[in-house]
């Protein structure tokens, strides 16, 4: 009666460990926490699985959904569109789950404008040196792409002031534990939805 499902928006620089943290949270709480699957206009890449990696809907359909205001947020990245479908978030809420969105800063701010209840969490690496080391270790990008990602960090950090929480991802277990604590605190926050006194009184 008193608890509410949360919309958790998790962002941070490339290599900060956002995806690893989100996966760890869902693996640990499979019945109460789900990651929203994003939609994209681009083609499927080798190793990706439709309806598991992304919803691949093509550019024409993506733009049509933008016109119909069917996205909670969206962005164009290197000529391709990515976004969070409102129906996907509602589907997960209907399962009584807290919903996690792993998205970029611009998308996070779009969500903040539409939903004041969204909880924005910024994931920070312990240091710039460690961030570079992580990007090199994962062996996903060429040296030029890695440098481009590192060059973006300064501008990305300017968004920190717009977030509710900052979590430094030094050790994965500690970062996950901090986010779990944030979730507990937010569920205990006083607001009109959590304080449903009339329903409580009916049981007396």
Produce a short descriptive summary.
The chain has helices at residues 18-28, 59-67, 86-94, 105-114, 128-137, 143-157, 172-187, 197-202, and strands spanning 7-11, 33-35, 39-40, 55-56, 71-77, 80-85, 98-102, 119-124, 165-168.
List the helices and strands and how they pair.
Blueprint: E1 7-11, H1 18-28, E2 33-35, E3 39-40, E4 55-56, H2 59-67, E5 71-77, E6 80-85, H3 86-94, E7 98-102, H4 105-114, E8 119-124, H5 128-137, H6 143-157, E9 165-168, H7 172-187, H8 197-202
Parallel strand pairs: 1-7, 1-8, 2-7, 3-4, 8-9
Antiparallel strand pairs: 3-6, 5-6
Helix pairs in contact: 1-7
Verbal overview:
This protein has 204 residues and is an alpha/beta fold. The protein has a domain at 7-36 and 97-202: Rossmann fold, CATH 3.40.50.300. 42% of the residues lie in helices and 20% in strands. The protein contains eight helices and nine strands. The chain has helices spanning 18-28, 59-67, 86-94, 105-114, 128-137, 143-157, 172-187, 197-202; strands at 7-11, 33-35, 39-40, 55-56, 71-77, 80-85, 98-102, 119-124, 165-168. β5 and β6 form a beta hairpin. The two termini are 14 Å apart. The model has no long low-confidence stretch (mean pLDDT 88).
């Amino acid at each position: 009666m008193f608890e509410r499902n949360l919309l958790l928006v998790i962002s941070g620089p490339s290599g900060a460990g956002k995806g690893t943290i989100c996966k760890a949270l869902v693996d640990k709480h499979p019945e109460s926490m789900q990651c929203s699957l994003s939609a994209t206009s681009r083609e499927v890449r080798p190793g990706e699985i439709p309806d598991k990696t992304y919803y691949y809907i093509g550019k024409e359909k993506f733009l049509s959904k933008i016109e119909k205001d069917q996205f909670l947020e969206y962005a164009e990245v290197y000529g391709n569109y990515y976004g969070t479908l409102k129906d996907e978030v509602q589907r997960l809420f209907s399962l009584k789950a807290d919903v996690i969105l792993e998205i970029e800063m611009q998308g996070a701010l779009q969500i903040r404008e539409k939903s004041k209840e969204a909880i924005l969490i910024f994931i920070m690496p312990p240091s710039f040196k460690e961030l570079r080391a992580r990007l090199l270790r994962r062996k996903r990008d060429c040296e030029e792409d890695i440098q481009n990602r590192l060059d973006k960090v300064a501008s990305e950090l300017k968004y920190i002031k717009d977030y509710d929480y900052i979590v430094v991802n030094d050790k994965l277990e500690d970062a996950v534990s901090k986010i779990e604590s944030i979730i507990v605190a937010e569920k205990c926050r006083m607001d009109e939805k959590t304080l449903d006194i009339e329903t409580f009184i009916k049981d007396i």
